[in-house]
Design goal:
Elements lengths: L33 H11 L12 E10 L18 E10 L14 E9 L2 E8 L12 H8 L10 H10 L4 H8 L13 E2 L4 E4 L5 E10 L8 H10 L3 H11 L5 E10 L25 E10 L4 H6 L12 E2 L4 H18 L77 H9 L2 H15 L7 H15 L1 H11 L3 H4 L8
Antiparallel strand pairs: 1-2, 1-9, 2-3, 3-4, 5-7, 6-7, 6-10, 7-8, 8-9
Helix pairs in contact: 2-3, 3-11, 4-9, 10-12, 11-12
Length: about 500
């Protein structure tokens, strides 16, 4: 085996990597020992800021293979002819915890995908649930604060969580999913993934369709019961990471089938639910799942930090044939995600190998910290100019979109027609098996039992009203579990049902 010389970061070979230069064997150290400074200074900077959300995650490379022709809906090249393959990267994560938190916490799971296509990188940044807790981006920071640490005690606070949820009934759908066994997946390999938001497809005729993305787990859904999840926190807090790495190492490659729901553009105006509301789903009976292709993860990264920690995903990164929608939460994420990456990784985060488009990238961005692509050399940094041959390809221009509202205002997100927070959660509960219902009620009772302080009764009663409105049986079961007289808190429309 060929030996390599030990060098500094600038390439200078050196010999003393373990002993610092000093005045005599027991004397003070000398400032001139540059190796000490280089080692300690780099060590002090090894940790970039962790993500504000989705801090702890696991990732792997893989391939996406088209299995069904959907070119009638989209001209995206990633969905080209049957058999077409695209290299991709996936990162799974918990949402609310820090980097050192346990993989089995009751929490949604991030499901972020990056497809390296010839028309640029397409990022689909979703969760393992089809809905979310809030539907306006102004609500996001407040919600996340309730999932983090109490500014007074620096501990997680059930009171903060349930106070927020009880004051925001739009969260009920996602809270019910979180409190079911789906809130504690066995591993990242055994859960579905969703784009969650409504996006758009544009076909070769410039027709627009609304679309939702579903990644259906081929390994089968497998969840921990609450007690099992708590036990695994102590046994192996990195269980999901270990499970994913081990499976891929031994050739047991996890797979998901991508399916889409497609809604013609005009139908959005008359559909019974707001199709751009992130707290709602499109029932499959109305818009059946259409198979698209298969995602397989088959390559573990050779270095966690370089690939998984530095991976940066943004819903803003779409490609020709895939576009946005009026989904308010999506509109907010278009700005906030790239901004978070510029803060955490720097303005040139898309030049990091895991984020870099492997095909041609041509623009006029220059300078900034950690510019590593030659910075454009002697070429001009403005457009248009008389010196280069870069042109705009008009064939990539999206069709215009007709907007219904000419009035700019602050519209109540829960105004009449947008305020049914109970039908879909109730339908979901009634679809559960008897065992799943019992587990869900038990998890809710356990979580709400942590509510404390002078506002305890107010918060508990307010949240119970929401459970009753979703399903009387659900509300009654939770009230019994909490030792609350249901008659005193049941909403009036159900009081004598």
């Amino acid at each position: 085996m060929e030996h390599k010389k030990l060098t500094t970061a600038s390439g200078k070979p050196y010999a003393e990597n373990e002993n610092t230069q000093s005045v005599g064997p027991r004397g003070p150290l000398l400032l001139q020992d540059f190796i000490l400074h280089e080692k300690m200074a780099h060590f002090n900077r090894e940790r970039i800021p962790e993500r504000v959300v989705h801090a702890k995650g696991s990732g792997a490379y893989g391939t996406f293979t088209v299995t069904n022709d959907i070119t009638q809906y989209t001209k995206a090249k990633v969905f080209g002819e049957v058999g077409h393959q695209t290299r991709m990267f996936a990162r799974f994560s918990t949402v609310g915890g820090e980097k050192g938190s346990a993989d089995t916490e009751r929490d949604p799971r991030g499901f972020a995908l990056k497809f390296y296509t010839e028309d640029g990188n397409w990022d689909l940044v979703g969760n393992n649930t089809p809905v979310f807790f809030v539907k306006d981006p102004k609500k996001f920071g407040d919600f996340i604060h309730t999932q983090k640490r109490d500014p007074h005690t620096n501990m997680k606070s059930p009171t903060m969580m349930w106070d927020f949820w009880s004051l925001n009934p739009e969260s009920l759908h996602q809270v019910l999913i979180l409190m079911s066994d789906r809130g504690t997946p066995y591993s990242y390999r055994h859960m579905h993934g969703f784009g969650s938001h409504t996006f758009s497809f544009i076909n070769a005729d410039n027709e627009r369709f609304w679309v939702k993305f579903h990644f259906v787990c081929e390994q089968g859904i497998r969840n921990y019961l609450n007690d099992e999840a708590v036990e695994m926190k102590g046994k192996d807090p990195d269980h999901a990471q270990r499970d994913l790495v081990a499976a891929i190492d031994k050739g047991d490659f996890p797979r998901w089938t991508l399916k889409v729901q497609v809604m013609p553009e005009a139908e959005a105006k008359t559909y019974r639910w707001n199709p751009f509301d992130l707290t709602k789903v499109w029932p499959h009976a109305d818009y059946p799942l259409i198979e698209v292709g298969t995602m397989e993860l088959n390559e573990n990264p050779d270095n966690y930090f370089a690939h998984v920690e530095q991976a940066a995903f943004a819903p803003a990164h779409v490609i020709d044939g895939i576009g946005y929608s009026p989904d308010k939460m999506l509109q907010g994420r278009l700005l906030s995600y790239p901004d978070a990456h510029r803060y955490r990784l720097g303005a040139n985060y898309e030049q990091i190998p895991v984020n870099r488009c492997p095909f041609a990238v041509t623009n006029y961005q220059r300078d900034g910290r950690m510019r590593i692509d030659g910075n454009g050399g002697p070429n001009p940094n403005y457009f248009p100019n008389s010196f280069d041959t870069v042109v705009v390809d008009q064939s990539y221009k999206e069709p215009s979109q007709s907007l219904d509202y000419a009035l700019a205002d602050w519209f109540d997100r829960n105004a009449e027609g947008e305020n049914d927070h109970y039908t879909q959660p109730g339908n979901l509960y009634r679809l559960m098996s008897a065992e799943a219902r019992r587990n869900t009620v038990s998890n809710i009772v356990g979580a709400m039992s942590g509510i404390d302080g002078p506002k305890k009764d107010e918060i508990v009663n307010r949240q119970l009203c929401h459970w009753f409105r979703a399903d009387i049986g659900l509300g009654m079961a939770i009230a019994r579990g909490l030792g609350v007289d249901a008659e005193t808190v049941m909403p009036t429309e159900h009081a004598h049902a």
